[in-house]
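Contributing: when you submit paired examples, paste them exactly as shown. First protein:
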Amino acid sequence: MAKSKKIHLWIPELFSSKGGIQVFSGFFLRAIQNLYPQVDLEVFIKNDTNQIIRDYLSKTEKISPSTTRSEQSLDLGSNYVELLTANSERLASIHFHGTGTTKSPLRTVIFALRLILSAIAQKPDLIIMTHLNFAPIALLLKKILGIKYVAIAHGVEAWDIENQLLKSALHNANLILAVSNYTRDRLYQEQNLALEKMAILHNTFDADNWKIAPKPQYLLTKYGLNPEQKVILTVSRLIKSEQYKGYDKLLEAMPAIRQVIPNVHYLIVGKGSDLDRLEQIIRQHDIQDCVTLAGFIPDEQLCDYYNLCDLFAMPSKREGFGIVYLEALACGKPALGGNLDGAIDALCDGKLGALVNPDNSEEIADTVINILLGDYHNKIIYQPQKLREESIDNFGFERFQKTIGDRLQSLI
């Protein structure tokens, strides 16, 4: 009888918080489950505790077949975890290993030792990591045991790399999957990596969580808006280190926008350390009456916020991809992004939205005005159902899973 294949999957975090890499890792794990049901899968999670993992696994056993998808995701508290539970029998057979109980920075050392010792003992056929920082450990194992490894590159962690060991690990990887052409191109240009070992694996999303719907009355009431009023929306972390998101440029453009559309309103969803600077910009431009900083909004309400807006705008310039664009498109909303980063991929080179120079407030203002007045040249942005269908066709989970299968075919 042939020996079954074994994969080790290394993940920074999966259950204890929700961020871009965590969500991606959840989708990736489910895709591996579906693609390779006979493979022995060992999942090593750096920042989750074994107790958190057990808690989530126990919740999967309590979900009845009659429970709706929305009820499942609310019960589990994270939409991407609900996706994992779709095959709960297979999930229960996967071996999870958490290291979150060890305090940092010792946790990094313990996690590395666990990865090394487990690989020596089990000799997996392939190691896959959803964060580049784990790559040096995989390089060591490749040199000792000849184990192949795949690294996934998202955004800022893949740019301006100075660590020589990490550079060597990337050059020796069997495959690097980048979530956008922007991330791949930066890695290629900065690290001189071989293009033949690099491929694109775009982010995905759960389209069932995002629906086309009328503007919610409770939000219109909450923010004192009327249904005909034009609303611009940004959903983003408001962190000083991520000022490249472009919400400040939109604030600078608001005086010009409201000259043409007097009752326009800009709603920013998110929280973080950049809030004081944004409030200063708002006061400086005297736009307090047409801008609302909504703060943190729970996941289960975000779809309502997308449906409240007439335009989703985030003219970023260093976004690895931008899942928020997909969420807006799946709600049938026009989307505006920057023309210098991963938003190019998310908006399909402008086919599904508007791409602007993120450093040019005047261009941002002109494009926003054209879109809101119905004068934008790409008329697909005014076809909600078409936007939804195209976003699912290009970035839905089925496409994501098929791409993984194609990329890993020669390695598994």
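Second protein:
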Amino acid sequence: MRHAMRSLAVGLSLLAFSATAAEPGFLETVKRHTLLTQTVPENGDQNPYAVVVAPVSAGKVQKDDVLVTNFNNSGNLQGLGTTIVDYNPATKRLSLFASIPRHLPACPGGIGLTTAMTMLQSGWVIVGSLPSQDGTTATKGNGCLLILDAQGNVAGSLAGPSINGPWGNMAVVDHGSTATLFVSNTGFGVEAPGQPVVNKATVLRIELAIPAGQPPRMTGQTVIADGLGQRADKDVFVVGPTGLALGANGTLYASDAIGNRIIAIDNATTRTNSVGTGREVTSAGFLKRPLALATAPNGHLLAVNGLNGQVVEIDPADGHQLYAQWIDPNKAQSPPGAGDLFGIAMTSDGTGFYYVEDEINSLVLAH
């Protein structure tokens, strides 16, 4: 497969939220957007979702490689994608990291890989599945979190009554022999498109033990937020809390897509109960259905929008929305870039970020 490469000087506008918002920010340093590769593997899977930068070299993966999940199959049906691809920035080559069997007894409903993915320092990859039989939520299954070894082989799964439609990009605290995962669940009570909003989405904290040479095993789990809005959607499968990013003092930030806001879950790493729907950090403004989140080196949050092609920079200390930058100005959608953005991940040196453009099945570097 040949992969086109292009570099766009950012004539893409950087918008300040107000006159007082024109303070130094991370997005001011982002000047170029370089298309790195198409993300379609040989089986034709489409719709890139999760973006994860490898923290270590292990098995097939080299440190700083970029792993990307595909949510759709070759027929462009949602919830049927089964592949993870691996882009190596040094060689500029794309390879197949994992092709997961469509049906696994330990993962209810089949496989449809979501934005929920991480790679641990121990080399294990954990990825979420929110599957469908026909591309709609009318036939969705509860899904699971799959555990893959560094060769891309399925080594186990995490499932149970607290896991239903693991959806949003994960936040992780990784100590090597133990790890803590944060994942949102958007499957509780979701049925066919057209139903009203269901306030049952959750954010779940999962504690893992990682014995040497053995797959991670769950040692504890706590629902730390619940009652968040979610609904089935014919165009994007499901709308619900998607972005998760850790900040200072154990605070977890989450994007509440239905509420068009960013919330904070205080003491997320240690709390023993649910905070409910969280503490609002910011809402509306530049936010247009915020999806995946990342934390920039200056401590600000970057949120990609689902309803236009912008990324928004937010100071979580006071909720100030500093800037929005058009990173996908594709006028084939209205507004430009609507429905195109999903995953985001900082580069390992913190000077830029990776993101995917769904409409052209591509991985892009902002730098």
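If you have annotations for the second protein, write them as plain sentences, like these:
Residues 1-11 have pLDDT under 50 and may be disordered.
The chain has one domain: 6-366.
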